Amino acid sequence: KKGGSSGGHNGLKDITAALGTQDYWRMRIGIGHPRTLNLQQGVADFVLHRARKEEQPLIDEAIAKCLEAIPLLCEGKFEAATMQLHTVK
User: What is the CA angle 25-5-24, rounded to 5?
Assistant: First the structure.
């Protein structure tokens, strides 16, 4: 995704402050929401809590997919990288 607000994410706030703009590309990995997963947990606790054991392979797969897109990003082929990331193999 290109641009947008930090959405309350402190890491993105720091990056935006350092760059002086919100207009930069970012990769997002969704983690779901405690309510949709039927968990009795607040959002902050859910986001900051260590991933469950059964989730780790999915996280590893998402990170690997992001790493595969880095060469396209380095070449400035942002749209191609986006397509690669969102194509199911």
Answer: 20
pTM for the full model? 0.65
DSSP code per residue over 13-74: HHHHHHHT-S-SB--------TTTTT----HHHHHHSPPPGGGHHHHHHHHHHHHHHHHHHH
Which tokens go with 53?
């054991």
Q: Is the dihedral of CA 60, 65, 66, 67 positive or negative?
A: positive
d(CA 58, CA 18): 31
What percent of the chain has a predicted confidence (pLDDT) above 90? 38
Q: Token digits for 12?
A: 């993105």
